[in-house]
Amino acid sequence: MRSFANAMDVFRLLEKTNCRKCNEKTCLAFASKVFLGQKTLDLCPFINQEILGQYQEQQSKTNGIETEFTLFDLKNEIKKCNLELSAKRVGGIFSNDRLTIKIFGKPFSIASNGKMFSDIHINSFIAAPILEYVLHCKGVPLTNKWISFRELQGGQEMNGLFVKTSEEPLKKIADRYPSLFEDLMVIFNGKKIENGYESDISLVLYPLPRLPIRISYWKPEDGMSSDLRIFFDSSADMNAKLNVVYRLSAGIVRMFEKISKKHGIPESVVA
Ligand code: SF4
Known about the structure:
Layout: H1 7-11, H2 27-35, H3 49-61, H4 68-80, H5 83-90, E1 93-95, E2 98-103, E3 106-111, E4 116-118, H6 124-136, E5 146-148, H7 155-176, H8 178-187, E6 191-192, E7 201-205, E8 213-218, E9 227-233, H9 236-239, H10 242-262, H11 267-270
Antiparallel strand pairs: 1-2, 2-3, 3-4, 5-9, 6-7, 7-8, 8-9
Helix pairs in contact: 4-6, 6-10, 7-8, 7-10
Bound molecules: iron/sulfur cluster (SF4).
Iron/sulfur cluster binds near residues 20, 22, 24, 27 and 44.
């Protein structure tokens, strides 16, 4: 069985004609949704049976965005990891057989047997990157220098997908409900930056101790359309694999989307 390491793996299998027979506007959008578990590969009629056979087992295991299988694997790796020694490296503390780190400023604990404890709702899309962060974070101090996803090591190749799954959907929410967008940042304990890059709204979120994310939004003005950009500390690609940064960002956007829907934003706006 073969598996997708990222959405580019899916994209490479496609015709790249943007014919829309899969009901997506582009092959890139389709690839992204297949990787995220929102669509199955067989919805593109141009994928041959041999290729489908190689991937269908993985597809059948897909549940939402991250598979339970992946989480199971990661928990097993956590069991082999010395969480006490890892605490400083990942920016957490260790006590009572649990490593505790702050996720959006709130405690999130992992026991030596891989079990996770938190007051905040963590979906599987967020849980898997958190565990990968604990396993692979190098403990590099923050530089406080903000860079784009494209500038991270390997970011150039995945930047199109990052824009589609993170920046564009977030901008849609901000365009329609800018005040709600600010409220959402408050819910996630974001810190507002005054005059951040001369944007109208600029906030920093702390989804992981050594992986802050800055979101800057420019409102539409004088015929100019709005803009939204997501930035990372320049140490991000040393403290997390690019794939983790990508999935974490997309996972956060998904959480925003769900909250937005609860606030009554039509699905067509946030989908
Ligand atoms: S049906 Fe296949 S080739 Fe056509 S747009 Fe969708 S993914 Fe691309």
